[in-house]
Amino acid sequence: MRVFDDPRAFQAACLNARRTGDLGFVPTMGFLHQGHESLLRLAAGHASSALSIFVNPTQFGPNEDLARYPRDLPGDLAKAERCGIDLVLAPKEAEALYPSDFQTYVELGPLAATLEGALRPGHFRGMATVVLKLLALAQPTHAYFGRKDFQQLAIVRRMARDFDLPVEIVGAPIVREPDGLALSSRNVYLSPDERARALCLWRGQQAALAAVRTGERRAKALELAARVEVEKGADRIDYVAVRDAESLQEIETATPRQAVILFAAFVGKTRLIDNGLLE
Ligand code: PAF
Questions:
Q1: What is the distance between the alpha carbons of residues 256 and 157, in angstroms, rounded to a whole number?
Q2: Is residue 182 assigned to a domain?
């Protein structure tokens, strides 16, 4: 495994690797957990594989956790190696990707205006910009993203389509703890009490699914069934929303497999997100 600080050297190595076949790529912000590792193993199934580890400042708002975002480069590299990754981009400084004269950002449409986009202004603009840069550097045939960031995946897919990017965007299933909590780098912030309460998102999802199974299709009723559970554990709820799984727009009736329920809530100071298709 080769590790690069310099994006240009990483790009040259990726281009060279592409000569011998497909390249699977996983962009991350590091502090890798088993969810990331499932993506790394998928990427490692290609002739060559690459990973980026970069805590992207442009996708954090002024009051968000950029400064305290968890980092563990040696641990991440050990995991990447174990998963069979060939090439890693891990710039030490943000300037490596954002030089002082950087000025070009991706402008997004309605998909990014709702849910996370409405609550975290600029988040998706920063995310899409860095993903576009990373895809331009790695030039992969396949890029892997977790479905836990459901809206992020939808936006990246849309960007790849709208910009004719020659890459297949692959969404991978959410990896959960045995009790249902979705794996997230931010779970490390949770105290034991908060960890127990964080299960409310999973319970909310189960409540909505149970209602679907009894024949309930009204989006508002499903949201209410889920919200009752989330309220039991969360300190603040940003949203519990049943949406069209493709456009992420509001719907009145949840058609199974075409509707998704999405959650964002604070447990203590930690903001958690989760989602599940209503099927
Ligand atoms: O999902 C993430 O970790 C980040 O949003 C990503 C895609 C690596 C862009 O910084």
A1: 22
A2: no
CA distances from 47 to 1, 10, 44, 222 (A): 14, 17, 8, 44
The answer to whether position 161 is within a domain reads yes
Count of domains for the chain: 2
CB 26 within 8 A of CB 35: no
Burial zone of 229 (CB within 10 Å; 0-12 exposed, 13-18 middle, 19+ buried):
buried
183 within a domain of the structure (yes/no): no
Same-domain pairing of 155 and 248 = no
Same domain flag for 236 and 203: yes
- Specify the pLDDT at position 256: 83
Given a cut of 70, the residues of the chain with pLDDT beneath it are none
Containing domain of residue 33, as a range?
2-172
Active site residue 46: no
Query: Which residues on neighbouring strands pair with residue 24, listed in sequence order?
Result: 49, 142
How many A from CA of 213 to the centre of ligand 1? 34
Percentage of the chain lying above the pLDDT 90 cut? 98
Domain boundary among 172, 205, 237: 172
Grouping H, G, I as helix, E, B as strand and the rest as coil, residue 37 is helix
Query: Which of 108, 131, 174 to probe ligand 1 with, by most ligand atoms within 8 A of CB?
Result: 131
∠ CA 173-57-120 to the nearest 5 degrees?
Answer: 65
Q: How many Å lie between the centroid of ligand 1 and the Cα of residue 212?
A: 32
pLDDT tens readout for residues 137-187: 999 999 999 999 999 999 999 999 999 999 999 999 999 999 999 999 999
Q: Name the catalytic one among 36, 46, 123, 142.
A: 36
